[in-house]
Amino acid sequence: MHCSLIVPGRSTTRILTLAAVCFMISASSAFAQRIDPAIAQQIAAIPAIDNHAHPVLAPPVETTDRDFDALPVDSLEAQSDPLAYRPDFPLLGEAWKALYNFDAPPPLDADGMKKLNAVRQAVASAQGEHFPAWVLAKSSIGVMLANRMSMGRGVQPPTFRWVPYADALIFPLDNTAMAAASPDRKAFFALEDGVRVRYLKDSSLAALPATLDAYLKQVVTATLERQKAGGAVAEKFEVAYLRSFDFGDTPRAEAERIYAKWIGRGTPDAAEYKLLQDYLFRYIATECGRLGLPVHLHANAGAGSYFSIAGVNPLLLEPLFNDPRLRKTNFVLLHGGWPYIREIGALLQKPNVYLDISNQSLFVPPHTQAQWLREWLEFVPEKVLFGSDGYPYSETLGWPESTWIASHNARQALGIALTGMLDDGEIDRKRAGELARMVLRGNAEALYKF
Ligand SMILES: [Zn+2]
Q1: CA 174 / ligand 1 centre spacing (Å)
Q2: CB 53 within 8 A of CB 387
Q3: Which of 91, 170, 281, 337 is 20 to 30 A (C-alpha) from 225?
Q4: How far is the CA of 149 from the centre of ligand 1 (A)?
Q5: Residue 177: other Cβ atoms inside 10 A
Q6: Per-residue pLDDT tens over the stretch 403-423
Q7: Tens digit of each residue's pLDDT (9 = 90 or more) over 180-239
Q8: What is the pTM of this model?
Q9: By the 8 A CB rule, do 343 and 313 touch?
Q10: Spacing, Cα 233 to ligand 1 middle (Å)
């Protein structure tokens, strides 16, 4: 997920203890909704598995790292930014304090920003290659799934697990017409074309094969197998930025005909291109099932002012989830599906559908988040995963701050939801502890077989 703009994480501050710091969640916190102190304690003690984030590489290469996203959009047109992405977001101050012991309320003026960057730099320099792991320890996260084009310095297993991108593989034809849909898509498709060139090169090919069969074997399957061998634990699609979730079931012969007709031959007919994309998406999802790689889908509104919110309705994916050929593929809907909170919750009854709360844990305040989190925990709690979507969003909201804030908010939301369930007699204390561990860690362990 990307928001406004950014330059990868400038680093940090004064040397702080390496010890993991647990979040203090208590009934005395500023939240109106009560959190049971014993539940708060249990939640604070669980080192989470973060299902989705974009950590930036360790110093000194953090300033040149662009692989933290396949679509690192520094050129999106302005949108109306949610409060969490603004420089005066109050939780920024708490994050700076917790991470760097930097005590100043947002927004910072130029001088304050200079001071913050000096403190960040000092910590980053002191931590060096360990800086990304230090950020995790500060945020009570034990393992982070790193959704990146590649792994690198300080972002390595077993603490960081790789989730590469598959979108470029479903757009093998001329994307000029797709790119013309909006200024944002113009930027996105230029980037995706670059990713496809990279995947071709990694597959030792100079050009796209002439037939679909060869493309599937030599590029698509070859790329997925190479990524799996390189440590990938899932495949990510941010396809919602590029087209709608309305994937049909195109027959193989039809896809072969369309591929052969248009490959290397100018701008394809839009309807035919969609049929080919639909086939390729299903093919990749099937291959991911064979390879044991869950499919991650960006599944919430935004970012960007041209993002199609109607096109990201998760119910559009239901035919895929109901396809018997895809029952061996697990799908994880990222970002909690907002605004389709009820729709995404209902989809949990599909045996192969999971969701995570990444990103919404960052921008939705805990009390609000707790309402639908509770609904999901009352329905199919084994398939709800914690996630942060830590990302270098802006100069003030770097990947350390966004990771810390998301972990902080998610634990508050979980505390509120579980306390409510306890107070209403739906669960006992033992079950509350189990549910907390499942969301923060256990469900991910089961899904990825960690
Ligand atoms: Zn993301």
Answers
A1: 26
A2: yes
A3: 337
A4: 12
A5: 14
A6: 999 999 999 999 999 999 999
A7: 999 999 999 999 999 999 999 999 999 999 999 999 999 999 999 999 999 999 999 999
A8: 0.92
A9: yes
A10: 16
